[in-house]
Design a protein that fits this description.
mainly alpha, two-stranded antiparallel ribbon, single chain, 184 residues, 4 strands, 6 helices
Length: 184
């Protein structure tokens, strides 16, 4: 996680999610009271509301009835659908993370988990993220064997010559939405 953009991205996403889910009861997005960005030698921070609840895995114990599980799933669907349907502000032009500009508007920024972006297209976001993953794999001493048998070269060739075909017929390639990688 790139600390330089992590806090701004999290606060920005919380702001967008609160707006997207403003009609959902009970209130599910924690309020942000204050925050500070990371700087060299100092981690960023967020002071936010503590929300009650428990991890979904704990909630789905075997002793829970099927009806209770269905009820939880229906609530999750409602939340995810509201996030998907939310129209992002026009100030967000790219794919990636978010931050705030000098006027306080939420704007496109680097994706904290990758440290790159924003990108001008969904395809370009994948291309760049795959290249970052390849660089990280190249630095991993446990994955060095994948060069000898040509796997590394085939993955690189796919990124350069095969990735575009995966996006050419994708109907949702222009769609942008709030995505949370750990919904539980």
């Amino acid at each position: 996680m790139h600390q330089e953009t992590r806090v701004q991205n999290e606060v920005g996403i919380l702001t967008l999610a609160a707006d997207a889910l403003c009609d959902v009861e009970p209130h599910v997005v924690p309020r942000v009271f204050d925050w500070g960005t990371a700087s060299p030698g100092r981690l960023g921070w967020i002071l936010q509301e503590l929300m009650p609840g428990e991890p979904l895995l704990d909630a789905f114990e075997e002793k829970m009835s099927l009806e209770e599980k269905k009820n939880i799933m229906a609530q999750m669907v409602k939340l995810l659908k509201a996030l998907q349907d939310y129209r992002l502000p026009n100030s967000l032009k790219g794919w990636g993370g978010v931050t705030f500009d000098n006027t306080g508007a939420i704007v496109s920024a680097a994706m904290p988990s990758v440290g790159a972006g924003p990108w001008s297209s969904f395809e370009e976001s994948y291309r760049s993220r795959l290249k970052v993953a390849l660089r990280r794999a190249d630095d991993n001493p446990y994955l060095q064997g994948w060069r000898a048998n040509g796997v590394r070269d085939r993955v690189e060739a796919f990124i350069e010559r095969g990735l575009a075909a995966q996006f050419s017929d994708l109907r949702s390639k222009e769609d942008r939405a709030i995505i949370h990688a750990d919904f539980s």
